[in-house]
Amino acid sequence: MVESEFEQYRGLFVAESRENHEVIVRNILILEGGDDPGAIDEIFRAAHTLKGASASMGFDTMEHLCHAMEDVFQAIRNREVEVTQELMDLLLRTVDLIEEMIDEIEEGGDSSSADVDELVDALKASGIPTGKKEDPSPQIQEILFSASAGESELPRYRIRIVVDDASQMKDVRALIAIGNLEQFGTIIRTHPPLADLEGDADTFDGTIIIEIESDAGGEALISAAEGSEITSVTIEEEGEDPDLPVYRILISVDEESAMRGLRACIAIERLEEMGTIISSDPPREAIEDGNFDSVFHLKIKTGSEPDALRRAALVPEIRSVEVIPEDAATPGTPVKKNATGPALDEKAPKKTETKNREIKNLRVDIQQLDRMMNLIEDLVINRGRLKQIAEKNRMKEMEEAIGMIDRSVSDLQILMMDIRMIPLNHIFNRLPRVVRDTAHYDGKEVEFVMYGGETELDRSVMDGLNDPLLHLIRNAVNHGIEHPEKRVAAGKPAKGLVHLSARRDRDNVIIELRDDGAGINVEKVKAKAIEKGILTQDQAEQLTKEEAINLLFHAGFSTADAITDISGRGVGLDVVKGAIESLKGTIRVTSHEGKGSTFELLLPPTMAIVEVMIVRLNNRRIAIPISAIVEVASMKRENIHRIGTQESILLRDEVLPLHMLEDMFGFSEETEILVVVQYDNKKSCIAVDLVEGQQEVVVKPLSSIIGVTRGISGITILGDGYVVPVLDVNTMV
Amino acid sequence: MGRILIVDDTMFMRTLLKNILFSGGHEIVGEAADGTEAVAKYQDLKPDLVTMDVVMPKMNGIEALKEIKKMDPGARVVMCTAVGQEQMVKLAIKSGARGYVVKPFQAPKVLDEVKNVLAS
After folding, report:
1. What is the dihedral of CA A293, A294, A299, A303, to 10 degrees?
2. For a designed S-S bond to A398, which of A110, A217, A390, A465 qualifies (C-beta 3.0 to 4.6 A apart)?
């Protein structure tokens, strides 16, 4: 079914089908929210494209399903069926299956394993009037051609056109021929009449007779009438052209000729340049095929002299040409001509145009992009090495050259970052469906609003964001929004609001998810935490509201009383927090009881290249992300105090937790510098021996064999080849 | 052999067509993903022939065809259509399209159509 030549299109097919699938889902949800002609147009277009593409790839099962679906959308568009909840569910089930099929195709299958019969039947049964599959296009009501009877002096022709039986739209072929002929004269009438051809009924048998008045000559009319899928064109002239004489030409081809038909053709073509060939015997297509016994006859109307005609026809392997003048043209002799015969019209002069020829976009395999990124990272590392070598050996010239490389590498880096950025819509687009399904399951009414989907993020950040965001959205509907009756009782509209927005704020992308639900019950959270043994009653009482809310992110915490099918599969907000932090992001929640909650995610747009401060501790080098550093101060040992188990230090008026990092890097006698870091509005200090400098580095994640190491987010390789750990401030503070 | 502008809203179809036309020795001078772009590119590139999808966003193929015909009455436009769209194609022919091909595309048919329309 799917030939190997189609393999090259598979990736493209999958990518675009996914886009179209998303368009359909998104717009079905819009449609569900109310009447929207724009949405149904979008859906129809996407469904139509899916159908066409799957047909082109030979994925018959998918095409079958898409076709049935397209018909339903068509009926909706034509207002022939009503949009009901059941219909929406059916359509969503259909698009779900289509998504599965796309998955299967992506993995090399052809979608044929899917069972579509039930859905196709259901779609067909959903109230589609049969036999009405046309686009709702404006009816063609105007009369195509003026049929005023020809009283003019122009010669009149009867042209008989036969359309190939295999043609998929025979009537359209006939219309094309008529349209083309109209350029050359006035059409008097056609049989069958134009109205029949233009109408809906499929009654055309493939043969049309056209009467036309034209001074273009028979050959030009034949040329105009013929075209793709036209089997034959026959022309008869009615009346006569008084101006030009008619000649009968007898041509005899060398019997030895290997390609008699071809020779004859050339002769005919030469003659055609001199006049109008009215008829030929045997018919022209037979001549072209070589089906004649060495001699054939032509009748030509021309202003040229007989001698000129003879010379024109005397091409190689033509034995003799005899030109006999005729007194008058004898009407009624048909000229038959093969549809694929040469056409005579001069082509419009071609202009050469060079601008805008290039393709503006291309798709690139993401793995190639990743490899490229890795190569650039290596380049960054080796650039550092080169720099050091040049400095060590005081090679001025080399330093200059490296300066140039430096700039190129920096530009390359920035460019690469840009290329890797994709709009958040990639994951946002799926969310309306998630909200809908979750709300349906819970029996809630939710309006979902999204903003800022065009905000861009690095692909790797995007990958990591998908699951946590899904989780938060489900939570918002599941735990945030109340049931309609509860909302009404609380004086709120029955329909809850979930609001998702994204924006770029200098160095970060901020994603905010807000709901107008019940908000977080702080006392309930505390009680649950005590019950789970996360903290004691006393500790709970000392918590601020903010701290209490943050308990939600504690491992294993879940306030949902019942685990529903949709959210809360035993995965808590702690996993969400972990995922966001692994993206070098932060998550914050604020809540007002009775009014709703807001989750705010702060994410770096890209995570591969980070500016760090290189510090030394116990003769080892450590990198600390600049973004986390508030200040660097000198350390006074007398200001260190022990509060409980934690060492603290007094810095000006603040008492801040102090990390000596002995367990990580060993004890150092020489710590005299304090690096003050901040995370989530909490500051703490790291004691180090000295600050070496500041630079951009590529952070490589730790291998999965090592696993997650608390305090370390990854490693980086410095210019001199040293492998340096990058501190993860989030997990330390 | 002609200089051809391919108009279709999906890259998949454009690629498919491009390869077919390329195999027939034609030069693909441009691609457009909707009617508006098609009209703009036509003006820019003055191709010998346009393959025009019917169902597209922004401006559909029929509208684009009409616009192109307004600019250049001699424009050669071949409609790319699907079974079930006869009415649309008839409208297109009435509006000056010179030919049509039916999806799924068969390379010989596409090339034949293009050849014929180029010769017309």
Report:
1. 170
2. A390
Q: Do A172 and B3 touch (CB under 8 A)?
A: no
Q: Do A353 and B45 touch (CB under 8 A)?
A: yes
| pTM > 0.80: yes or no | no
pLDDT digit string (tens) for A39-72?
A: 888 888 888 888 888 888 888 889 889 988 888 8
Q: Do B83 and A45 touch (CB under 8 A)?
A: no
8 Å CB contact between A727 and A709: no
We report the CATH number of the domain holding residue B65 as 3.40.50.2300
Distance CA A457, CA A421 (A): 5
- From A225, which residue of chain B is nearest by alpha-carbon distance? B120
| Shortest alpha-carbon distance between residue B7 and chain A (Å) | 13
What is the overall mean pLDDT for chain A?
79
Give a yes or no: residue B9 inside a domain.
yes
Among candidates A290, A390, A470, A172, which has minimal Cα distance to B88?
A172
Q: Taking CA atoms, what residue in B is nearest to A362?
A: B11
Helices (H), A476-521: 484-489
Number of domains chain A is built from:
6
> How close, in Å, is residue B84 to chain A by CA atoms?
6
Tell which of A57, A133, A135, A340 to mutate to test the B interface (max B CBs under 10 Å).
Answer: A135
Q: How far is B25 from chain A (nearest CA, A)?
A: 16
- Contact yes or no for B12 and A9 at CB 8 A: yes
Return the pLDDT at A558.
61
A56/B45 CB distance under 8 A: no
| Token pair recorded at residue A275 | 């006049």
Q: Give the CA distances from residue A466 to residues A431, A439, A583, in Å, rounded to whole numbers and listed in that order.
A: 10, 19, 12
Looking at the predicted structure, is the pLDDT value of residue A599 above 80? yes
Paired sense of beta strands A230-238 and A207-214, if any = unpaired
Please report, for residues A145, A359, A438, A539, A548, the alpha-carbon distance to residue A544 in angstroms, rounded to integers and kept in the order given.
84, 59, 32, 10, 6
Q: Which of A314-318, A584-588, A671-675 has the lowest mean pLDDT?
A: A314-318
Contact predicate A652/A645, CB 8 Å: no
pLDDT tens, position by position, A187-241 = 888 888 888 888 777 778 888 888 888 888 888 888 888 888 888 888 887 755 5
Q: Would you call B116 an interface residue with chain A, using a CB distance cutoff of 8 Å?
A: yes
**Residue A258 pLDDT > 80:** no
Residue A563 scores a pLDDT above 60 = no
**With bands split at pLDDT 50, 70 and 90, how would you rate the model's confidence at A143?**
very low
Do the domain assignments include residue B116? no
Number of structural domains in chain B: 1
On whether residue B120 sits in a domain, the answer given is no
The whole-angstrom separation of Cα A351 and Cα A401 is 47
Burial of A178 (0-12, 13-18, 19+ CB in 10 A): buried
Query: Domain residues for A489?
Result: 425-520+559-603
Q: Are residues A723 and A640 in the same domain?
A: yes
Question: Are residues A73 and A44 in contact, defined by beta-carbon separation less than 8 angstroms?
Answer: yes
Instruction: Say if B118 falls within a structural domain.
Output: no
Would you say residue A147 lies in a domain? no
Q: For residue A532, give both structure tokens.
A: 């789970």
Q: Helix axis angle, A260-272 relative to A306-313, nearest 10°?
A: 150
Q: Report the gap between the CA of A238 and the closest CA in chain B (Å).
A: 25
